[in-house]
Structures are given as C-alpha cells and as structure tokens.
Amino acid sequence: MLETGNFGGKCVDINSLMVGLARAAGIPARDVYGIRVADSRLYPSLGTSGDISKAQHCRAEAYLEDAGWFPIDPADVRKVVLEQQLAVDSAEVVNCVNTYW
C-alpha cells in the first residue's frame, strides 16, 4: 500500500497497515476482530443494518498511557469517504472522525 499509494482494500488490510505504522513509531497497537452488533448513529454502512452475517469487522487499537486501548479505524473513515462520495478533508469527514473517536 505504501509503495503503490493504493490505500484500498478491506478493513483488515487498512487497519493492519495502521497497526504496522503505529508499531514502527513505537506505539503499541493491535488488530481487533469482531462483529458489529448495533446500527450506527452516523452512517448505516458502519452498523449492522439488521443482518449481522455481513457485519464482520476488523479495527485497529493503539495503547495510550492515560486512556488504555483506544480505537483507531481508518477503514471506517475510508468507507464513509467512498460511500458518501466525500473528499477526505471535507468538513463532514472531519466531523465524522471527531464524533466517532
């Protein structure tokens, strides 16, 4: 991804890259795998929408000394950008990131 500049892929691809970059910077990080069990209050695509058979998800977490394990999910940000056809630096995306985290 870093060599090609193609930051696509599934959640596991994008979040694994995030974990690798965090660890390379000396920040403890891990992948967390699970199933989304609730609807999203922000975007339907970030929740279950009723059928959990397609709700598998991987997210990244980084360890922050004062907060413990903190969720970091660039894959969800990327999903919102693509599905809502938004610019990465748009106010809606920035608001989503600030609200979500």
Index terms:
101 residues; globular; alpha+beta; 21% strand; 3 helices
Write a compact overview of the structure shown.
The chain contains 3 helices and 3 strands; from the N terminus they run αβββαα.
What do these coordinates show?
With 101 residues, the chain is α+β, with helices and mostly antiparallel strands. It is built from three helices and three strands. The protein has helices at 11-24, 74-83, 91-100; strands spanning 29-35, 56-64, 68-72. Strands 1-2-3 form a three-stranded antiparallel sheet. A hairpin with a 3-residue loop joins strand 2 and strand 3 (68-72). The longest helix has 14 residues, at 11-24. The protein starts with 10 loop residues before the first helix and ends with a helix.
List the helices and strands and how they pair.
Elements: H1 11-24, E1 29-35, E2 56-64, E3 68-72, H2 74-83, H3 91-100
**Structural classification:** alpha+beta
- Give the number of DSSP strands: 3
- Helix fraction, binned, reads 25-40%
Strand content: 15-25%
Q: Calculate the terminal CA-CA distance, rounded to whole Å.
A: 24 Å
Element-by-element helix/strand order: HEEEHH
Report strand order across the widest sheet.
1-2-3
Q: Biggest sheet, open or closed, and with what strands and sense?
A: 3 strands, antiparallel
From the alpha-carbon coordinates, what is the Rg to the nearest angstrom?
14 Å
Low-confidence runs: none
- What is the average of the pLDDT values? 85
Shape: globular
